[in-house]
């Protein structure tokens, strides 16, 4: 077993929502959690209602629900204003034909419009499909066409990356920032103008049942194109309770999740969970910039912060003195997700920010956090934490047999739980593949659990790549590479990287007539970057004369490529 004992970090004194983990594990009842929602009395279910309208009904209309910062620019919205806006947008969308069960894709930057259109879509019982703002044409096309999406909400800038001609299914494109109707193209609608013309309807919410589709996020595996994971409104039960216990949200908290809603974290923990808990959310426009981030923490008074190891490592690289230039006295609780959180980063957080960083583990498919470090419990650096109360995990061998503590195996979760995905869109076979052993969801991660129940991540059992917390399927990148005229074959792996966890490395065989050069490699890299997405483009490329393959089926042996790469790296270290 590869668990290295490190110096543990005791909890910092505080008045936490959950104070005794063992007791919570014994006593949690999901049925009791359900009592927190207005539908437990009214029978009327809708995530958007629980996130926004309920707070207005309960007398919190004047509380700030969203604080937007972009450089020196700031604006705030109360829950009452968000209710008004989302009711109004929902009225326009409904008048334009959006109805229960329709897919509505949302391709917008981190801006209040992105958050409001998501809630408006969900109010109508439609399924929100947020797309990452850095997606390029093909990533956008693949997702919308897979759902035969009829509706898209975007802005005039990102519209340039929507290949309209290749998306005949698209009927209406709502532009959030176009106010000159003369300039609108075919199928385009100015949301601003429609809002001006439309009287907001009071009772616009469409009530659904708990199993109704809520949102769709596409996620990569080791084979095939990304798959659409659909969640149901019932996920709110799980999300709400993790907000209470893991994010430790209280009424006066200002909460910032740095992820874009195009990734599951940005939706579940950037929108649903904090709003279910009535927290003020911070939306920070623009890209990563250490000074800008510390500035946002200071000006908005963030108290609870959820980010990712790569971001923490980037802050760490800026030096230990920088945070001293800012007033971070409101910051009380830090969390991380998406990739392994190195112990060094946790120690850095303690030393420079005076706070522990609490790692959490979950997946797009799981709908909410499943393995967590709680503020009232000891942190074992290097461990993702322990199962959330009410969640049972096991480490299984290849035959589904439970392993003893200390043995490495497949990280599996007893199914079902309230946040688990509803379905894989149009792919029942894929959905079933997560459950190879009766009653267990098998994550694809390898892990070890120690005697105290702490779980340590050991890698993936497949070839999936995790770069800066972003899940990248090697097949998707390989397919794009071989579309380039110079590339005959390609094999793609994740290569360990100190900053990003892993980077995408491609091994390529050139077609006859092409000679390798830096210029050609850069051109091939750009080919992927401009068509798929920047994070999928190989940061490293190597030209080889042949690729290792299986004898029978001739499939590329990525594992072999990875083993060679790891051997090279260990030689360098020695
Ligand atoms: O390999 C695990 C890794 O990210 C995968 C899930 O990726 P995605 O669906 O994009 O969701 C990311 C955020 C919810 C997992 O199978 N992963 C996630 N959290 C951690 C992690 N690896 C190590 N430590 C974590 N805390």
Compact overview of the structure:
With 574 residues, this protein is α/β, with parallel strands linked by helices.
Written account of the structure:
This protein is α/β, with parallel strands linked by helices and 574 residues long. It folds into 2 domains: 21-388, ANL, N-terminal domain (Rossmann fold), CATH 3.40.50.12780; 463-573, GMP Synthetase, Chain A, domain 3 (2-Layer Sandwich). 30% of the residues lie in helices and 23% in strands. It has 17 helices and 26 strands. The strands form 6 sheets. Strands 2-1-11-10-12-13-14-15-16 form a 9-stranded mixed beta sheet, with helices on both faces. Strands 4-3-5-6-7 form a 5-stranded parallel beta sheet. β20 (440-449) and β21 (455-460) form a beta hairpin. The longest helix has 17 residues, at 79-95. The radius of gyration is 24 Å and the shape is globular. The two termini are 22 Å apart. It binds adenosine-5'-monophosphate-propyl ester.
What's the end-to-end separation, in Å?
A: 22 Å
Q: How would you describe the oligomerization state of the chains in this entry?
A: single chain
Write the CATH fold name of the largest domain: Rossmann fold
- Mean pLDDT, as a whole number? 96
Strand order of the largest sheet: 2-1-11-10-12-13-14-15-16
Let me know the largest β-sheet. Answer: 9 strands, mixed
Give the low-confidence spans.
none
How much beta, percentage-wise? 15-25%
The strand count comes to 26
Could you say which small molecules are bound to this protein?
A: adenosine-5'-monophosphate-propyl ester
CATH architecture assignment of the largest domain: 3-Layer(aba) Sandwich
Q: CATH H level of the largest domain: which superfamily?
A: ANL, N-terminal domain
Give the class from helix and strand content and strand pairing. alpha/beta
């Amino acid at each position: 077993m590869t668990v290295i004992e490190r110096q543990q970090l005791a909890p910092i004194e505080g008045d936490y929502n959950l104070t005794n983990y063992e007791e919570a594990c014994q006593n949690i009842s999901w049925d009791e959690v359900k009592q927190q929602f207005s539908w437990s009395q009214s029978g009327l279910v809708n995530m958007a209602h629980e996130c926004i309208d309920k707070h207005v009904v309960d007398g919190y209309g004047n509380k700030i629900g969203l604080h937007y910062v972009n450089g020196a620019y700031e604006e705030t919205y109360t829950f009452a204003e968000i209710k008004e806006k989302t009711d109004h947008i929902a009225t326009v969308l409904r008048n334009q034909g959006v109805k229960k069960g329709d897919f509505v894709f949302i391709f917008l930057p981190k801006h209040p419009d992105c958050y409001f259109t998501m809630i408006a879509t969900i109010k109508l019982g439609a399924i929100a499909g947020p797309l990452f703002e850095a997606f390029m044409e093909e990533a956008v096309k693949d997702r919308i066409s897979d759902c035969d999406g009829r509706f898209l909400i975007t802005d005039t800038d990102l519209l340039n990356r929507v290949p309209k001609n290749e998306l005949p299914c698209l009927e209406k494109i709502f532009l959030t920032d176009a106010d000159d109707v003369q300039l609108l193209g075919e199928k385009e609608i100015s949301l601003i103008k429609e809002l001006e013309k439309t009287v907001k309807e009071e009772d616009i919410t469409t009530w659904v049942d708990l199993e109704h589709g809520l949102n769709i996020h596409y996620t990569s595996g080791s084979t095939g194109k990304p798959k659409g994971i659909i969640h149901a409104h019932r996920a709110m039960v799980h999300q709400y309770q993790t907000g209470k216990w893991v994010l430790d949200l209280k009424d006066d908290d200002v909460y910032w999740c740095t992820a874009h809603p195009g990734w599951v974290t940005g939706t579940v923990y950037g929108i649903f969970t904090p709003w279910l808990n009535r927290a003020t959310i911070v939306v920070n426009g623009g890209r990563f910039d250490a000074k800008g981030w510390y500035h946002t923490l200071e000006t908005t008074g963030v108290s609870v912060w959820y980010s990712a190891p790569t971001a923490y490592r980037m802050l760490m690289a800026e030096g230990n003195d920088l945070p001293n230039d800012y007033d971070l006295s409101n910051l009380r609780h830090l969390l991380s997700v998406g990739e392994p959180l190195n112990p060094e980063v946790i120690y850095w957080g303690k030393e420079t920010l005076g706070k522990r960083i609490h790692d959490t583990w979950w997946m797009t498919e799981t709908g909410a956090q499943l393995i967590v470090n709680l503020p009232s419990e000891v942190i074992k650096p290097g461990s993702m934490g322990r199962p959330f109360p009410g969640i049972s995990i096991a480490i299984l061998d290849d035959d589904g047999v439970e392993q003893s503590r200390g043995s490495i195996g497949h990280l599996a979760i007893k199914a079902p739980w309230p946040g688990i995905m509803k379905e894989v869109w149009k792919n029942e076979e894929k959905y079933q593949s997560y459950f190879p052993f009766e009653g267990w969801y098998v994550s694809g991660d390898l892990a070890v659990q120690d005697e105290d129940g702490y779980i340590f991540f050991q890698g993936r059992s497949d070839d999936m790549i995790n770069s800066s917390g972003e899940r990248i399927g090697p097949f998707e990148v390989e397919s794009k590479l071989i579309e380039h005229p110079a590339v005959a074959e390609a094999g793609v792996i994740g290569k360990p990287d100190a900053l990003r966890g892993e980077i995408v490395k491609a091994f390529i065989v050139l077609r006859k007539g092409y000679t390798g050069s830096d210029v050609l490699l850069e051109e091939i890299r750009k080919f992927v970057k401009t068509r798929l997405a920047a994070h999928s483009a190989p940061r490293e490329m190597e030209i080889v004369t042949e690729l290792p393959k299986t004898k029978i089926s001739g499939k590329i042996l990525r594992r072999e490529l990875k083993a060679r790469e790891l051997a090279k790296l260990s030689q360098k270290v020695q």
